[in-house]
Amino acid sequence: MAIARDTTAANIKPLQGAIVRRVTLGATTEAGEIISLQSDGKWDPAVATAVVKTGAIALQAGVDGDKVDAVFFGPVQCLTGATIGNIVYVGDTAGEPVETAGTKSAVIGHAESATVLFVNFSTVSFS
Description:
Mean pLDDT: 95
Radius of gyration: 13 Å
Number of strands: 12
Distance between the termini: 30 Å
């Protein structure tokens, strides 16, 4: 099975040691999506077709202007089918994790298990 974002909102949760902060969304977002800070100060689903400079995992769904919690560092249950130990990248589809770098490489973290992402964001390439 290939890596994917868990689409069951009730399954998306921070685990012990996760750093969680409240953010304001700037676009429709689903629980478990990778989000990135935009120039308007709001967080939108991240997409690697452009340079992604920041990253976190939204814990709740919402729309423009909603405040939600997001995991900025540490373990979060939000995946299905991940390969343990693999790097997890921001994908070319907004908000979605992949195990192969997107157009503009940005690492959201690594898979601790098939369902747990350890968030440790890093921009890999601006080219």
